[in-house]
């Protein structure tokens, strides 16, 4: 006998920056059937904003206030409505709604921690306007880590056949070398190893590790971080049985022969790893936060203010993020 619809895992989907494409991307969830019978997406956002955006973009869907005891229906979007602080116009940022954007995240996170939701998926936010409102905000990854009291999390993007995790995230390039310490690198690799098993279902993960410097330091002539920090950590963890290859020169690490030997890549800094991934997967890639006590996935793109309100934004990344969150939630059950 198949499970009842009421037993389906619920996935919280935050609609993100109200002036961006997030709300209209979320509207597209009502028309998709890939997860029917597997999960119930619940969109967090102002229901009047969503109705307005549906009218502007001519996206056909029925909106209804979410009730926990109500089963999903095709063509119907369940909305956990939280009110905007100010009316929102597509493409026009308003710092007055920064608190609303964070409230969506807080509510989804609280629901995940309480077991109300099995996972959370986040539409894009605009870091600049949140900071303009006087709220220090680096990104979803750091915000959720702070809110859950998690000492370290790992940002991973997946798509185009690649999984790329980062040893550092949103840092100025000049600050990266000092941020890569033996302690931080070891902790990152342990989180990556654990969540590749738990969230991706890979029993013995093979991890390709990039060097920091050109040619992985060229034996110390182009930098000594590989010799003094990265290699000793890899050797120590290999001694515990972890399957680690590296440090590898980043300019050749993303070639097919090397990628075939790994299940994921650990890059030392943001653009070192994500340039290749976004080339391979833009529009279909997703962001996964590893190390959190909850499951969180996200789109791999920004708010695209210039497209907001047109109905032309591609929902592919959001769909993949929802599907990946469902996969992870099913493994966790």
Automatic annotation (TrEMBL):
Superkingdom of the organism of origin: Bacteria
Family: Belongs to the PdxA family.
One Gene Ontology term, aspect cellular component: cytoplasm
GO molecular function: 4-hydroxythreonine-4-phosphate dehydrogenase activity; cobalt ion binding; magnesium ion binding; NAD binding; zinc ion binding
Assigned keywords, A-Z: Cobalt, Cytoplasm, Magnesium, Metal-binding, NAD, NADP, Oxidoreductase, Pyridoxine biosynthesis, Zinc
Enzyme Commission numbers on file: 1.1.1.262
UniProt: substrate binding residues: 140-141, 278, 287, 296
UniProt-listed NCBIfam families: pdxA
Pathway terms, separated by semicolons: Cofactor biosynthesis; pyridoxine 5'-phosphate biosynthesis; pyridoxine 5'-phosphate from D-erythrose 4-phosphate: step 4/5
Organism (species): Propionivibrio dicarboxylicus
Broadest EC class assigned to this enzyme: oxidoreductase
Designated name of the protein: 4-hydroxythreonine-4-phosphate dehydrogenase
Function (record text): Catalyzes the NAD(P)-dependent oxidation of 4-(phosphooxy)-L-threonine (HTP) into 2-amino-3-oxo-4-(phosphooxy)butyric acid which spontaneously decarboxylates to form 3-amino-2-oxopropyl phosphate (AHAP).
Any single Pfam family the record assigns to this protein: PdxA
Cofactor annotation comment: Binds 1 divalent metal cation per subunit. Can use ions such as Zn(2+), Mg(2+) or Co(2+).
Listed cofactors: Zn(2+); Mg(2+); Co(2+)
Main location: cytoplasm
Subunit architecture: Homodimer.
GO BP terms in the entry: pyridoxal phosphate biosynthetic process; pyridoxine biosynthetic process
Note in the entry: The active site is located at the dimer interface.
């Amino acid at each position: 006998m198949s499970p009842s619809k009421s037993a389906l895992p619920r996935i919280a989907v935050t609609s993100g920056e109200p002036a961006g494409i997030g709300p209209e991307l979320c509207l597209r969830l009502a028309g998709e059937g890939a997860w029917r019978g597997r999960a119930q997406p619940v969109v967090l956002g102002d229901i009047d904003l969503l109705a307005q955006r549906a009218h502007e973009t001519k996206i056909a869907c029925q909106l209804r206030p979410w009730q926990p005891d109500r089963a999903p229906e095709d063509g119907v979007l369940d909305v956990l409505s939280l009110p905007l602080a100010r009316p929102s116009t597509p493409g026009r940022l308003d710092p007055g709604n920064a608190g609303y954007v964070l409230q969506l995240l807080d509510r989804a996170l609280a629901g995940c921690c309480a077991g109300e939701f099995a996972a959370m998926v986040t539409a894009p936010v605009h870091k600049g306007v949140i900071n303009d409102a006087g709220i220090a905000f680096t990104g979803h990854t750091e915000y959720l880590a702070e809110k859950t009291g998690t000492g370290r999390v790992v940002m991973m993007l997946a798509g185009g056949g690649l999984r790329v995790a980062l040893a550092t995230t949103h840092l100025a390039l000049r600050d990266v070398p000092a941020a890569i310490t033996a302690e931080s690198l070891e902790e990152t690799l342990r989180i990556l190893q654990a969540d590749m098993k738990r969230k991706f279902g890979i029993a013995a993960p093979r991890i390709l590790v990039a060097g920091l410097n050109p040619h992985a330091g060229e034996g110390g002539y182009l930098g000594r971080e590989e010799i003094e920090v990265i290699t000793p950590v890899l050797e120590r963890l290999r001694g515990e049985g972890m399957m680690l290859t590296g440090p590898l020169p980043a300019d050749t690490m993303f070639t097919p022969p090397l990628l075939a030997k790994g299940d994921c890549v650990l890059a030392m800094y943001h653009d070192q790893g994500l340039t290749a991934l976004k080339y391979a997967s833009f529009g279909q890639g997703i962001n996964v936060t590893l190390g959190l006590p909850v499951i969180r996935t996200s789109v791999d793109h920004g708010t695209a203010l210039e497209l907001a309100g047109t109905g032309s934004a591609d929902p592919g990344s959001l769909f993949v993020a929802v599907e990946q969150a469902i996969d992870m939630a099913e493994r966790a059950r």
